[in-house]
Specification:
The chain has a domain at about 75-235: Tetracycline Repressor, domain 2 (Orthogonal Bundle). The chain is about 65% helix and about 0% strand. The protein has helices spanning about 10, 20-45, 50-60, 60-70, 70-95, 100-120, 125-135, 140-165, 175-195, 200-215, 230-235.
């Protein structure tokens, strides 16, 4: 044996080329802008987003923000995509670790309730965006509707898997079951955010159990799952001060 140290692979790597360093920095800057824009949109809505408002929040110039997106519309679409990615990560992918059937469907609903509860003060982009763009057409509405449709498809698929496992009636309409579950979340958001009803979370949880019982199954929250009801109740609080959007 010798005392010679093995070569350090990191130190032996050539430094990034100047053009690549600029690209990486540009991607990091764009990601930071989107993160700030998402936080702003959760407070003032997608319609309130503007190049000027985001520039003010990030401390950048309007031209600097514009260089990364090219238009207010593209900024809004980027925010929708980022929200969708985060929603998938926190609600969908963690539920996929559960076994198919009711355990996975229960996890989806529990995660969705936690997500909704966390947005009591900030607001849900899917819900607020639907209010803002329900009577409009264009790429922003299309991006928003596509994201929501993708999630609804995943929810319906979870219902169908529970039916295939014999845990929900195979005679039932999977779309109807998914529709009713979606309706519970909309009611929870309205009751908790607008009416500040402290019992909204428990009513939503009871509603979910009623749906399972009505369509031929029953389930209890998986052991070890954080108490979505407790967390939601803690988050039904006085709303934060809403910021006004800056002009372009």
């Amino acid at each position: 044996m010798t005392d010679r140290q093995p070569p350090n692979n990191v130190e032996s790597l050539p430094p990034p080329e100047p053009g690549r360093r600029v690209l990486i920095k540009g991607q990091q800057t764009k990601a930071a802008i989107i993160d700030a824009a998402l936080g702003l949109a959760s407070q003032i809505g997608l319609e309130g987003l503007s190049i000027g408002a985001v520039a003010e929040v990030t401390g950048m110039s309007k031209s600097g923000v514009f260089a990364h997106f090219g238009s207010r519309e593209e900024l809004q679409i980027s925010v929708i995509r980022e929200y969708h990615d985060r929603f998938e990560s926190s609600v969908f992918y963690t539920a996929m670790k559960k076994s198919r059937g009711l355990p996975r469907l229960q996890a989806l609903f529990d995660n969705w309730m936690v997500q909704t509860s966390a947005e009591i003060d900030s607001g849900c982009i899917y819900i607020s965006g639907a209010v803002e763009f329900d009577d409009r057409s264009g790429p922003v509405r299309d991006a928003l509707a596509s994201s929501v449709a993708t999630w609804q498809t995943a929810l319906r698929r979870a219902v169908e898997l529970a039916q295939a496992q014999g845990q929900l009636s195979q005679e039932a309409d999977a779309r109807q079951i998914a529709f009713e579950i979606h309706g519970l979340i909309l009611a929870l958001h309205y009751e908790a955010r607008f009416l500040r009803n402290p019992s909204a979370t428990e009513r939503a949880r009871q509603g979910f159990q009623h749906i399972l019982a009505r369509y031929g199954g029953s389930a209890t929250p998986p052991t070890g799952t954080p108490g979505a009801g407790t967390q939601a109740a803690q988050l039904v609080a006085v709303p934060k001060t809403r910021r006004k959007p800056a002009n372009d």
